[in-house]
Amino acid sequence: MNEPQLPGPVGPAFTAAYLPYLERTLARLDLPMSERVMGAIADGKKWLANELEAIDSASPRDLRRGPLEIFQEAMRFPTAALVAEGVAPALRDIVAESALPGDVYALAPASSQDLGESVLEVHVAWGVARARALSGSLPESQPRSDLAVVPRSAVAEPDPLVRESLKVALEAAGYATTLWRNPAEAETSAGTRVIHVAVISGSHPVADALLEVCTREDIPAIVVCEIADDIAQARYLSLGAVRVVGREAFIGGAATMLPRHT
After folding, report:
1. In a domain, 213, yes or no
2. Mean pLDDT of 227-253
3. Which domain covers residue 195, as residue numbers?
4. In whole angstroms, what is the distance from residue 245 CA to residue 228 CA?
5. pTM of whole model > 0.70?
6. Of the spans 94-98, 102-106, 112-116, 117-121, which averages the highest pLDDT?
């Protein structure tokens, strides 16, 4: 079997965004842009470029983290410089502390959208390409008869670019997809066709209500988050989700997380 490859690099866009993002963030947080901090940012950019180059040259199935996670880790360079300058840590809530405990100045972006629309587009396109590349290396599903019902999934994700990447991952795993935009639409959908699994974005403004629909209709629900930390796990599992996963992990491994239907 040939190794699946991604069609284009993601590293240059993230690397180019590093300095402008930190300049904006340091200014917004009123943190010093000293010579020491600038030197640390330069070191961080070099490290980031090398790490992202490794992602771009690797096989999709070998990747254990995505470009956003690496970008977040690159915040350790200016963070160390600010610590050396004696700057007091930021006040962060428990969710932020749990997700990124080392990000004591709250420098790390929560999503690639924080880096600009162009980076978000590259990131989501990379996720779509990765899902398509992986579809050729996923385990073969059980043979279906001509009368077998293709399993159907519902996708609830407000961002069209992210939604596309989730749909590609689901379709690569053998699932047809339908869109849920609100609880009423979910109720109607569940009442007119069999939904084998719902994939709901943790950032969806009505995620909780959609999970209530899944509970009532006995539909397994997977919640996909930017960061699936302990707080997110506890919250969404308590609301009825059967699984809470990171977005990039889901895009890369949807076939291993979804119910099997033959």
Report:
1. yes
2. 89
3. 141-257
4. 5
5. no
6. 102-106
* 119 and 162 co-located in one domain: no
Distances in whole angstroms, Cα of residue 230 to Cα of each of 98, 174, 227, 237, 254: 7, 30, 9, 10, 21
173 exposed, middle or buried (CB, 10 Å; 0-12, 13-18, 19+)?
A: buried
Note whether 108 and 23 are same-domain residues: yes
**Average pLDDT over every residue of 148-160:** 81
Query: Interhelix angle for 11-28 vs 35-57, to 10°?
Result: 150
pLDDT of residue 241: 93
Of the candidates 242, 66, 222, 252, the one whose C-alpha atom is nearest the C-alpha of residue 157 is: 222
Report the amino acid identity of residue 86.
G
Q: Which two tokens stand for residue 234?
A: 């506890």
Where among 131, 165, 184 does a domain terminate? 131
CA dist., res. 141 & res. 164, Å (int): 23
Domains contained in the chain, number: 2
- Does 98 share its domain with 42? yes
Portion of the chain with pLDDT greater than 70, in percent: 84
Is 162 in the same domain as 58?
Answer: no
pLDDT (tens digit per residue) in 183-205? 988 998 888 888 999 999 998 99
Label residues 221-258 b or e (16+ Cβ within 10 Å = b).
bbbbbbbbbebbbebbeebbbbbbbbbbbbbbbbbebb
